[in-house]
Amino acid sequence: MFSTRPARPRELTGNQADEYAAEHLVEDEVDPIAWTVTYHCPDTGRRWLRDSPDAHLQGGGAPWMRQLDELGEAIEVPGVDPFG
After folding, report:
1. Which of 12, 25, 62, 84 could crosslink 39 through cysteines, CB 3.0-4.6 Å?
2. Range of 44's domain?
3. 45-to-28, 35, 42, 49, 76 alpha-carbon distances in Å
4. DSSP codes, 5-74
């Protein structure tokens, strides 16, 4: 089980990504062409992007979730909190 407060992950993959989304996030938009899903956290308001970087594999491969900044861009710098 995950907690949105202490750890504040910026990036999750595989089963962790799916579990975190199911337990903590609200689905906002699904793009079946690009294989992406955007979410938001009801506790923090932060937005997340789930995509499948290995979309050429059956089922899209392992999911990859990244936190988005205020402009909707994926946060790429580990350990940097653009909100705090």
Report:
1. 25
2. 11-68
3. 12, 23, 6, 13, 19
4. TTT--SEEEHHHHHHHHHHH-EEEEEETTTTEEEEE-TTT--EEEEE-TTTTSGGGSS-EEEEE-TTSPB
State the DSSP code for 83. Answer: T
Query: What does the alpha-carbon distance between residue 72 and residue 16 come to, in Å, rounded to a whole number?
Result: 22
Q: What is the pLDDT along the chain (84 residues), one digit of tens a residue?
A: 444 443 556 888 889 999 999 999 999 999 988 888 999 999 999 999 998 877 677 766 788 899 998 888 887 655 545 445
For residue 73, being part of any structural domain is answered with no
The number of folded domains in the chain is: 1
